[in-house]
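User: My instructor asked us to take a sequence, write out its structure as tokens, and then describe one feature of it. I'm not sure where to start. Here is the sequence I was given:
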Amino acid sequence: MNIKFCGANREVTGSCHLITLDNGYTILLDCGLYQGYDEDYESFNKNWLFDPKSIDCVVLSHAHIDHTGRLPYLVKSGFKGNIFSTHATRSLCAIMLLDSARIQEYDAEYKNKQAAKKGSKENFKPLYETKHVSETMNMFRSVGYNRWFNIHPEVEILYTDAGHILGSASITMKVNGKNVLGFTGDIGRPERPILRDPQPMPEVDFLICESTYGDSDHVSKPIEDQLFLDIVQETCIENKGKLIIPAFSVGRTQDIVYIFDRLFNEGVLPKIPIYVDSPLAVNATQVYGSHPECYDDELNEYLLTDDDPFGFNTLKYVRDVEFSKSLNDKKEPCVIISAAGMANAGRIQHHIANNIENPKNTILLVGYAAPSTPAGILISGAKQLKLFGNWLQVNAQVKRIDALSAHGDRHEMLAFLKNQLTSLKGLYLVHGEYDTQLAWQAFLEERGFDNIHIPKLNDVYEINS
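Assistant: Let's start with the prediction itself. The structure tokens for your sequence are:
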């Protein structure tokens, strides 16, 4: 069999790995959308490195758009097979892919209007439309954790909880009764709120492994309620400003709301309005509430005293566009949590644009951001930021905490991999910046791992167990 690497190679986005068995059967592990502004990847989303019609099935690790966002385009391009996922991943994909389609439709409409104003006849089209999402969801087949299931008479799959987001999983592939191949998906962190800790995978011969934080250790422990409380106190009470938090609609937003919910119940959260301004986040939070099978013991115990861990008196979920716009006119202190987490799309861009030049305000970055995105630029310490065609002065405080990072750091990932040390014949690093992957490779080699590869986009590796 062979592996063709078709995305997230020396990059942290666009996950896609093609497995071809000796009998010709083809399995796509993830089918992610590239998210970012790198010119080298400008055409990535539109062009396949394989024939979509030839793919027999897709096996998903989790619902994040950089792992699932091209599924409707795959269907549009002729794919007819099954899409396998966990139950929660299917639920999240139903809302996330629809949101992705609507964004693309809106962007195409906006570009066409701008082109028409300039007298251009250029016609921009979305990668896919909402109708393709409906077709895609009909192809899903969902399965629970820790249950082997067949995708082919010779191939079984096992989902193991990866602890990254709701429904996230590592994938073990058994071919003719032997654990040949594994895919870590995105490895979560132990002791994070809401979710169970990452569960070790069965031993495999070959492993595709993420490497997002392969060169670093997180400064903060996974649960640091006091960090958030201190920043709210400083920004909203002492400076009487606004706290703007770019956060992914799925995972990060629910983590933050749950922390605020606990602080509210403890009576220590200042009585200021907190807004979750993202229709997708509102829908995702409802999905979180309907999948308690993914909760950890701490949250299950918390539910005995609070039956809604994602709601309290000073919290308001915002769907309405006009209400969202009105938040920019409010002068009183508040917290605004809005998507996208990298600030490269969505309502958060408007909130940053309207608040970044006020020194009373704080922009709090709570997760990974690609260097080319607005959040990544702010992390780099930039004094100016370009949004909506305008250069804005960065007068607001910019703070970053990694307490809620959904990705394990190098020591946490090492702990996840330790049971694979003696069995592995080959380890393939994906989903990481190249410099980070080189550091992660060296880190692993120092601890006994060998035969480590860092594939380039379009590389093909033959594997024989």
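For the description part of your assignment, you could build on this observation: The longest helix spans residues 87-117. Try explaining in your own words what that tells you about the chain.
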